Amino acid sequence: MDRETCAADKFNCTVRERALFEAGIKMGTVYHQFVGVPVNSDSVEALERSIEEGVLVQPYVESIKVRIDRSRFSVKKDEYSYCSLTGEMLDVVLRIKIDDVRVTAEMRFDKELNYPLMYISNIEEL
C-alpha cells in the first residue's frame, strides 16, 4: 500500500472534510509558528517568502500567498527599531487540493471582530 492510501485510510471523513481539515492545520501552522517573529521593513519580504515556502512543502498545498501589513512598522531609527509579527499583520490566502476538491482558506484581521480571523472562503468540487 502506498503512503497516500495508507494516510487516507486513517481519515474517517469525506475528501471534502479532509481538505477543510488540512486547510485548518496549515493556517494554524502559519499563525502559531510565526507570530512573535521579529520583523522590520528590511526583512518583511524574506519573512513572507519563508512562510510561503514553509507551507508549500506540506501535503496538499496548491498555493499560498502571504502579505504582512507594513503600515505597522516604524521608521528604523536605531538598532532597536523593529516590531514583532502579530496576527493583525497577516493576510494569507491558502489553497488546498485533494483529489477533486479545492479549498480556499484565508486569514485576515477583521476590524469588526478585532480579531485575526481564519475562515474558508471557497470550496470547489472539480
Salient structural properties:
elongated, alpha+beta, 6 strands, 126 residues
CATH class designation: Alpha Beta
* CATH fold call: Pantoate--beta-alanine Ligase, Chain: A,domain 2
End-to-end distance: 26 Å
In DSSP terms, counting alpha (H) and pi (I) runs of 4 or more, how many helices? 3
**Strand ordering within the main sheet:** 2-4-5-6
Low-confidence stretches: none
- What is the percentage of strand-forming residues? 25-35%
General shape: elongated
What's the SSE pattern? HHEHEEEEE
CATH architecture tag: 2-Layer Sandwich
Number of domains: 1
The CATH H-level homologous superfamily:
7,8-dihydroneopterin aldolase (MptD)
Major sheet size, sense and barrel closure: 4 strands, antiparallel
Q: What structural class do you assign from the helix and strand content?
A: alpha+beta
Please report the total strand number as a whole number: 6
* Average pLDDT over all residues: 95
Helix content: 25-40%
Radius of gyration: 17 Å
